[in-house]
Amino acid sequence: MADPRRLSTSATRVQRSGIREVLALAITRPGLVRMEIGEPDFPTPAHVRAAAAQAADRGSGYVQSAGMPRLVEAVRRRLAARAGIEVEPSRVVISQGAGQGLAAVFAALVSPGDEVLVPDPAWPNYEMQVTLLGGVPVRYRVEPGADEHDVVVTLERAMGERTRAVVINSPSNPTGECWSPEVVAAVVDLARSRGVLVVSDEVYDEVLFEGQAARAVSYGADDVVGVYSLSKTYAMTGWRVGYLALPRWLAPTVAQMQEPLLSCVSSVTQAAAVAALEGPQDVVASMVAEYRSRRDAVLQQLVSALGPIPGGRPLLTPTGAFYVVLPLADGVDSRRAALDLVEHGVGVAPGSAFGDVLRSSVRLSLASSVEDLRVGVTRLTDWYAVTDGGQRQLEAAALR
């Protein structure tokens, strides 16, 4: 007799996100400074909230699975005006945030045993989603400042007969690095030559300081999926609206995948998304300027308090997104360090959540107020000094 409580093999292989592990603890601690999650602390713009209220008053109901025509058109205009990307309506799909959009793309592409190349370091959900489908996530190492030759060689070595897609993410979560146009173009060219799809996660495409967004779709409309979101750009994380720019051959299937996955994205939040894309954009520039100011202040405070980083590893300056990666002492378990830091009043994301490259680092989110960041970094650097960047914690663990 079959066990009705038996879980699927794929489900049991999905690992919990290290970010969410820290978050679950952090939200229960009054007075703890939240630097573990990438959620803007700014309010959603007033005109966006007003548009949602008006839509709710008119009444909400089911709408097209691929997205309301007015929002699809607003997305098309946004991509053309700010990214130089021309797409017809049939190639746009509205998703419940970028995460669900990625899930729909992978569901359309990945069969059990298929491989998807994911960057290391990277947002952990790429691997989780591929694994849930019975696919095999294959990590490729992303070195800071790598040129197109280095990236292409790395990807060539990682690609195999069952490679279906390669994920790129610029600006990067967690490092904030932005790939140059030359690197992005080289990746698209390589993938095209191998019959592999590029899935370009560009949810931070407008949170730029000195860098450039990937704009990968512009290098190959039939070889690239562009993944975008309103969450970071407009401080709309809870509204759950993202969108995809898809190749012609893939768009109908992904649009169809929306039906069993969610029927449709809420008509109320889609109305809010229209207002965000069509309304005044000065709020975006103001938020980005504030993130840049916070980045500079946090880096200055870290350098002033810590001096040289253990092991001589550099403290990188992010050129996009809103994160700073802080190296710990070599060999330190960043998960253990992050959990210990919760006890010291500050939440950070363990680098191990993003792969192997940052296993001995932590990620700090700049999406908190200036005062919270100042207090949080002080608590972090005090812990850092007492533990020698986690080295004493490592030595204590070795003795147990």
TrEMBL record:
Q: Which SUPFAM superfamilies match?
A: PLP-dependent transferases
Please tell me whether the keyword Chaperone is annotated for this protein: no
Report the domain of life of the source organism.
Bacteria
Q: Which keywords does the record carry?
A: Aminotransferase, Pyridoxal phosphate, Transferase
Q: Supply the InterPro entries for this chain.
A: Aminotransferase_I/II_large, AspAT/PAT-like, NHTrfase_class1_PyrdxlP-BS, PyrdxlP-dep_Trfase, PyrdxlP-dep_Trfase_major
Report domain Aminotransferase class I/classII large positions.
33-380
Q: What are the required cofactors?
A: pyridoxal 5'-phosphate
Top class in the EC scheme: transferase
**One GO biological process from the UniProt record?**
amino acid metabolic process
One short Pfam family name for this protein? Aminotran_1_2
Under Gene Ontology molecular function, one entry of this record is:
transaminase activity
Q: Does the keyword Transferase apply?
A: yes
Which PANTHER family does the record cross-reference, listed alphabetically? ASPARTATE AMINOTRANSFERASE
Similarity remark: Belongs to the class-I pyridoxal-phosphate-dependent aminotransferase family.
Q: What protein am I looking at?
A: Aminotransferase
